[in-house]
Amino acid sequence: MLTNDDSRVWLRNALNNTRKRYPFTIDVWVLMTNHVHLLCTPRAHNAVSLMMQSLGRQYIRYFNFSYKRTGSLWEGRFKSCLVQEENYLLHLYRYIELNPVRAGMVKQPSDYSWSSYQINALGKESNLCTAHPLYLALASEPEKRRANYRDLFKYPVEGQLLEDIRIAANKGMVLGNERFTAEIESLTGRRMTAKKMGRPVGWRKEKVNK
């Protein structure tokens, strides 16, 4: 639980320090009151998993010491998904930085201090984020790039896109097109799409014919 600004400052600093220990970069982040969203690019196998495990242990020690408590804090392992950069990366930028708006905490993402929006859209200085090549490709000039980035936020993340992102993140699946998903399934040997709810098509006919 990120109960106040002190805890969010601590976690942001710890995240920055942990980033120096493991080979990965942070593209986007938001610190909410009861959860955290990170979009990361790993530079080595298991880098993000190791970082998250380390960060989680550090925060439990900090939180328990601060509030004179003992025991676990998080509800299970962190949730994650693989992302196809070309088709979904900038959508995830919007999804993550619009979290405070969807939660009704602020009217505009620029009003929320505990996210990377002020860095990516307004030019606030920070060493926590590393600009992704697809973000840099929005324009060659920084001011034009930020303006183009702000234009992406004229429309909310909703409908099927919002559902796809939530399913992929919550179930540890893939966010990408059919070809990308098939490639990941072939490499990992794991199903990377959610099963459809309800009985299979034609089940009544099959039952009658048996």
TrEMBL record:
GO biological process entries: DNA transposition
SMART domains membership: Y1_Tnp (SM01321)
Entry protein name: Transposase
Matches recorded under NCBIfam families: REP_Tyr_transpos (NF047646)
All residue ranges annotated as the Transposase IS200-like domain in the record: 2-99
PANTHER family tied to this protein: TRANSPOSASE IS200-LIKE DOMAIN-CONTAINING PROTEIN, TRANSPOSASE, Y1_TNP DOMAIN-CONTAINING
One Gene Ontology molecular-function label: transposase activity
